[in-house]
């Protein structure tokens, strides 16, 4: 795809320890066009978080290439990172700092110019104004998710990577966050890649889906295309078909 914002080729990650090697991501290829919202779907251990971590430069790929916003992410990720952001329930904010202090530090790190105004605006958007003076370590799981999303939007990212963006949110708040993300995407033209276990969320938000299993992409397409191809009613049924079909792939774990 010539004008892809995000392009991954033959990407692989082996976790190597003395006891064994786990191939978490086993040679995947995909490209995302500007302004698309794409979901990485797959069961527990399929390789979604490992993939997102490599895209962010938190993990070094065993092999393969990643280009984001035209930059080679293995060699020049610092050129692209200021134009990106991410949220993940697995990344902790410094516990003793307040929410406001955390957002202030991240705003500085990302070089946000209108820091105070931006933090105030995003705090209002994410309905976390009442939490600003609380230590980040003392928030409920759902409150933490909203603060992490606020952090992810601080620098108005052109590329947004989201690991389970509505994890721990009650249905009302989750619905509201989805609407917010959709609006953000439409207003900013951002490109979004998200990992989720929530199929309704993916059907509502995403233009395309990458189905992962055992570290590979085993199917892909628009949610409606996949639903039609599998002759199903919804994406959840497609997911179950893929997750439960016999595995023909070679064993991903070797001694
Ligand atoms: N640090 C690690 N060391 C060794 N193996 C790991 C490590 N992190 C992940 N794995 C293994 O890599 C595989 C992929 O894990 P990953 O966390 O990417 O999956 P996931 O699709 O995000 O799963 P989930 O839906 O449960 O979050 C799994 O088999 C997991 O056990």
TrEMBL record:
CDD domains: ABC_DR_subfamily_A. The keyword Transmembrane helix does not apply. This is ABC transporter. Gene3D superfamilies: P-loop containing nucleotide triphosphate hydrolases. It comes from Oceanibaculum indicum P24. Residues 6-239 form the ABC transporter domain. It holds the Pfam family ABC_tran. Belongs to the ABC transporter superfamily.
